[in-house]
Amino acid sequence: xxxxxxxxxxxxxxxxxxxxxxxxxxxxxxxxxxxxxxxxxxxxxxxxxxxxxxxxxxxxxxxxxxxxxxxxxxxxxxxxxxxxxxxxxxxxxxxxxxxxxxxxxxxxxxxxxxxxxxxxxxxxxxxxxxxxxxxxxxxxxxxxxxxxxxxxxxxxxxxxxxxxxxxxxxxxxxxxxxxxxxxxxxxxxxxxxxxxxxxxxxxxxxxxxxxxxxxxxxxxxxxxxxxxxxxxxxxxxxxxxxxxxxxxxxxxxxxxxxxxxxxxxx
Length: 266
Hints:
By secondary structure, the chain is mainly alpha-helical.
């Protein structure tokens, strides 16, 4: 029988039987012939190819607040509707600050990092005495995203927030810090994210120990992330500073397949 050796079917023919159907033109030729191989190769080359790319659900530069971030701020409004109004007003300030920042290249960096982190199937965290990301307790993605945006904005636009004293009904940053850490966003996380630089020596830096990373470095990161959108493994590795494929698997929600048209002969 075709594709047999002795009394058994060869592994090569088993693969063909279960995973490949030869084109009509190839069936008419002798199995194993150069002509058949050429016809099969031609047909395979003519099929649409697929490649993967990062899809954050928004175009960059960002012109509107991403849905997951908006959902997070709305959820916080419901949580604090009858709670501490000063906390709620602080989140209102943060959302308004984010909206004003749209179009700023540094805001692009902020949102690309936030959307990647909130897309992870586990909530990334940085443990005590650690300098790398690991899987933490799962947090609500929307609440995590809104809290992460808020804390990152403190350093992008420190002038927009009250730091040491409440501003009317807006809670000061020093008190908000405790509230946001319960959402999984710590200064350790921002430090390892390379959003801020640490001028102190504490394991979990104080707000006063941190300042925004130099603008030229953040703009370089923006350019690198944009250039890696068609290389999901490289993009995720850049964000998490790790080539461990587990982060790529955890962020599969922002990876899409794109069909490529086959090249036509000239």
